Amino acid sequence: MRSRIDEQIILDAALKVFARFGYKKSTLEDIASELGMTNTAMYAYASSKRDLYERTVSFVMKRWQSGVEQAVDAKTTAMDKMTALCESALYYLAQDLEFCALLKSDPQIFPMFPTVDPYEEINRDSVRMIERILLFGQETGEFRTVDAPAVSEVLFSIYKNFIIHTYINSEEDYTSRYLPITMDLILNGIKRV
After folding, report:
1. Mean pLDDT within 97-115
2. What pLDDT shows up at residue 16?
3. CA–CA dist 44, 127 (Å, integer)
4. What is the pLDDT of residue 44?
5. 158 contacts: CB under 8 Å, gap ≥ 6
6. In terms of Cα–Cα distance, which of 51, 17, 55 is closest to 34?
7. CA 97/CA 81 separation, integer angstroms
8. Cα 27 to chain center, whole Å?
9. Mean pLDDT computed over every residue of the chain
């Protein structure tokens, strides 16, 4: 049985290879080479390229979520939590260039109109994070009463739109132009008056 650190090292190497070559052109042999492993050892770890790819994407998405949760948990008010969530979730990709490259080669990681979402549970966790902040804001009286599950879905869709425009379509000024307007709309649209 492999230890957790071994898995992280393998997934980090897989991310580098998938980011560099894309899913279609990457091979398990490329990843084994990146790790200095034999092909046999690599095949003992991963049953298929698809399996390793999905585990790699899940790993990096959970790492992203963890960073966002830390930013949110560091804040005390619902308004600050919502701001931290929006900003840290969006700007994380500016620092994780490998994940950004992976998104460019596979935008279906965040499908806009999912009939099948390969990372549904992880994306569902992101929606629940938004919902918890909305409910917290309603409890503290900072936010007006809204249908928190529905509003969370809408906000996550807006977020995916930012990811697509900024990181997948490489519209670098999209965030600087539209994030302040969107944040004002979100925060003042849910604020209790």
Report:
1. 80
2. 95
3. 35
4. 81
5. 182, 186
6. 17
7. 25
8. 24
9. 87
Q: At residue 111, does pLDDT exceed 60?
A: yes
Report d(CA 97, CA 42) in Å as an integer.
25
CA dihedral 181, 182, 187, 193 (to 10 degrees): 60
Distance of alpha carbon 171 from alpha carbon 174, whole angstroms:
5
Bridge partners of 191? 143
What would the two tokens of residue 32 be?
A: 């084994």
CB 11 within 8 A of CB 32: no
Per-residue pLDDT, 170: 78
DSSP state, 165? I
Biggest CA-to-CA distance, the chain: 63
d(CA 67, CA 161): 20
DSSP-assigned letters across all residues of 10-64: HHHHHHHHHHHHHHHH--HHHHHHHHT--HHHHHHH-S-HHHHHHHHHHHHHHHH
Cα-Cα end-to-end distance for the chain: 56
- What the block records as the tokens of 132 is 């918890």
Residue 1 has pLDDT above 50, yes or no: no
